[in-house]
Write a structure and sequence with these properties.
heterodimer; A: alpha+beta; Glutaredoxin; two-stranded antiparallel sheet; globular; disordered C terminus; B: mainly alpha
Chain lengths: 224, 289
């Protein structure tokens, strides 16, 4: 994606003293949303019908994706691509990833249906859903939405939803957005880099170095 | 019991993302204008008031009601939103020539502060530059093009800060441009009150690039703006249909506004000519800027 015009606006904001972004690191394959989107936060229901909040998978790189199990194209393709990308990583790295598949169609996707669906893609895939209020709150937080179409004679109805995967680092900061144009290799490369950066932060913290310093070293956003 | 349907209707009037300074500005302008109407109590203000209030209400509605939600998640609604912000709303407001009413309705301190601001050298210099006809035309078309560069558009829709920068820049540029075009004072009354011919030339010049852009979007065979897929659409609609509708909205009504403005200017020209020939001089107006 051409980022020249973006830099121009960034510069405008820089002059206005509103924001400052470092440009020393190599670009990500996905779209960098560091500082643009708020940190991960939600209140939903998991595959066991238990309430779950963002603290549940803390410390993992989390991939947030909105969809519905009756989705004919985008959802299975995206989840399949994530599965393939994760499969290329080392077992230890895989363990540091969770894919949160949020169904925006709770009427047709009760927790047990969601569990059967995400099990097809592997252990790192977790199905979440919630009430309309919970889902609206979460989607609005990430500036995405969803909507329902008319029911046909079989009771099937289409659902419009976001096609992007939002990626959060182990600290829960929004970092990347994977859209449909990314390949399995691109996704794997970015995930590996995020996991490694997260591991560095952890090691340094364990080594009793200043945590904040480590966080800036990993390029972590200090979103309020 | 409160009617559910009525409640959900009322909810549509609430802002999707409340921008309090913006709401406050609209309310202040509305209060000053209505006060000015009351103080002047002239029947001749009424057609202008209708235009001004309609324009103001339209601009408010596309930014601070549920329409803004739809504009964020549907390309064609977004194009409609910009049509209102950049063309229709400012056109009606400029056409109503509201300066006299606003001045009459302003408290003294505000009028004094405004005069100081408008009279200050840097403001006058900037105003003269952006209202230079060629620059004004370039800005008018340039902003439409800039925010529709696919990568810029992507960021604007994803980032709340850029989103409001985009909408407010369109609104402000719209007000500046249409005021320059539709200024009812006789040409030469102020340094930025241009001749009718120059203005018609600018209006003609901004038409083809808008037609071209709208046609390119409407006739494109690929989805140009993928951010609406990334963020999800407000309801399931074919991305191509969404894009074609948006293209048509950029293409036809936008260019029609130039034609409408030309008609308004011709009428103004004939009125000025008649005033020049008749023994009674053209009544001086107290328009600021």
């Amino acid at each position: 994606m051409n980022t020249r015009p973006l830099r121009l606006i960034s510069l405008l904001f820089l002059v206005a003293g509103l924001t400052a972004c470092g440009e020393s690191e190599p670009p990500w394959r996905g779209h960098d949303i560091t500082g643009v989107m708020p940190e991960l936060d939600y209140n939903l229901v998991d595959e066991n019908s238990e309430p779950v909040s963002a603290g549940a998978y803390a410390g993992k790189v989390r991939l947030l994706f909105f969809g519905f199990t009756h989705c004919p194209d985008i959802c299975p393709v995206t989840l399949g691509r994530l599965k393939a990308a994760i499969a290329t990583l080392e077992p230890a790295q895989r363990e540091r990833i969770r894919v949160l598949f949020v169904s925006v169609d709770p009427e047709r996707d009760p927790p047990e249906v969601l569990r059967r669906y995400t099990d097809n893609f592997g252990d790192r895939f977790i199905g979440l859903t919630g009430s309309q209020a919970q889902l609206r709150e979460l989607t609005k937080r990430y500036r995405v939405t969803y909507g329902y179409g008319e029911k046909d004679k079989n009771g099937f109805y289409p659902v419009s939803h976001s096609s992007a995967v939002f990626v959060f680092d182990p600290q829960g900061n929004a970092r990347l957005l994977f859209n449909q144009s990314l390949t399995v290799t691109d996704i794997a490369a970015d995930l590996e880099r995020l996991i490694d950066a997260g591991a560095t932060v952890e090691t340094r913290a364990k080594g009793r170095k200043v945590v904040a310093q480590a966080a800036t070293g990993a390029g972590t956003a200090n979103y309020p | 019991m409160v009617d559910e349907g009525l409640l959900s209707w009322l909810r549509l009037l609430l802002p999707w993302e409340p921008l309090w300074p913006l709401i406050a500005t609209f309310m202040l302008v509305l209060a000053i204008y209505v006060r000015g109407l009351g103080r002047r109590s002239q029947l001749s203000d009424m057609p202008g008031a209708l235009g001004f209030l309609t324009g103001l209400a339209m601009m408010y509605a596309v930014m601070q009601t549920h329409l803004d939600y739809l504009a964020q998640y549907m390309f064609f609604v977004h194009r409609g939103q910009h049509l209102v912000l950049h063309h229709l709303g400012p056109f009606l407001i400029a056409l109503s020539a509201p300066s006299a009413v606003l001045a009459a309705g302003s408290p003294n301190w505000l009028r004094a502060a405004w005069q100081r601001l408008a009279g200050s050298l840097p403001v006058r210099a900037i105003y003269r530059v952006v209202q230079q006809p060629v620059i004004a035309g370039l800005l008018f078309v340039g902003l439409i093009y800039f925010w529709l560069i696919p990568s810029v558009h992507f960021d604007a829709m994803l980032n709340a800060r850029y989103y409001w920068l985009m909408n407010l820049s369109m609104a402000i540029d719209g007000l500046l441009f249409w005021w320059l075009m539709l200024d009812p004072r006789p040409p030469g009354a102020t340094p930025v009150t241009r001749g009718i011919g120059v203005r018609i030339a600018v209006l003609c010049a901004v038409m083809p690039p808008q037609i071209l852009l709208g046609a390119w979007i409407a006739l494109s065979r690929d989805v140009i703006f993928d951010v609406y897929a990334v963020c999800g659409r407000a309801w399931p609609i074919s991305p191509m249909v969404d894009q074609q509708l948006g293209g048509l909205l950029t293409w036809i009504p936008a260019a029609m506004m130039s034609v409408l403005a030309t008609l308004v200017l011709l009428r103004l020209h004939f009125r000025n000519e008649r005033a020049r020939r008749s023994p009674t001089p053209y009544p001086a107006t107290s328009e600021a800027l």
